[in-house]
Amino acid sequence: MRIDIATLFPEMCEYYLNESIVGRAKEKGVFEVYCHNIRDYTLDKHRRVDDTPYSEQKGMLMQCDPIFRCFEAAAQGRKPHVIYMSPQGKVLTQNRCRELSQLSDIFILCGHYEGVDERVIEEIVDEEISIGDYVLTGGELPALVLVDGVVRMLEGTLSYADCYEDESHYSGLLEYPQYTRPEVWHGRKVPEVLLSGHHANIARWRREQRILTTLKKRPDMLESADLDEKDMAVIDNFNKMKNEQ
Question: Quick check: bond before 182 cis, omega within 30?
Fold first, then answer.
């Protein structure tokens, strides 16, 4: 996979992309990433890429030309899937990360100030993505969240598929609780089933805990989760105990 990021702060993005799991995946050649400074593509001698909006609105707006020139230089005749990180976009989900990980070429545009001129969005952008219903000062952090979420789904990034398949949201449920040594901490013991070595019992316990964790923290997710009769029995038992308290 190739990822291009158009930004006013390429060093900020590069620093993160060279670290931890994402950085190791890049070193192994799992994906390529290129951070482009939009200011390098302006014709303004002061390297300005913004101007005042055609309205009484305060603030500055990023211009079309520098963004489009940056896109053309990065694409080099290719047609990558173009994503604009925007609070107006659809909220990023695990499923969308999985879908994007199947693409071979992504170009991510990071906005700033009051955003970007609508015409360049109409010209090149395929979709707008948000990381939540709030506004940040720029698109760099959302872009890095997107890249992290996509790259960890690529083959070769993590040691085993289980590393992400058991995680929250991958299959419509939250992740089960996890424990490590010591066996007893502040009087709290690791659940006995995890010490038993009985793989079938452990697997069932994890499934039950995923359902209970989702029920307690994000019950809305259960509406679309794939649940069987045993799963429904776990929910019914939990609700019964809750009503008896």
Answer: yes
Give bridge partners of residue 69 from the DSSP assignment. none
Q: Would you say 129 and 89 are in contact if contact means Cβ atoms under 8 Å apart?
A: yes
User: Residue 221 and residue 122: Cα distance in Å, rounded?
Assistant: 34
State phi, psi for 93 to the nearest 5 degrees: -130, 165
Instruction: Give the pLDDT confidence of 37-95 residue by residue, as tens digits.
Output: 999 999 999 999 999 999 877 899 999 999 999 999 999 999 999 999 999 999 999 99
Taking Cα atoms as reference points, which of 162, 245, 178 lies closest to residue 210? 178
Owner of token pair 């545009």 = 109
Please tell me the distance from the alpha carbon of residue 46 to that of residue 144, in angstroms, as a whole number.
28
Q: Compute and round to an integer the Cα radius of gyration of the chain.
A: 23
What pTM did the predictor assign? Answer: 0.87
CA 116 to chain CA mean position, Å: 22
Fill in the amino acid letter for 80: P
Q: Which domains are assigned to the chain?
A: 2-151 (3.40.1280.10), 166-244 (1.10.1270.20)
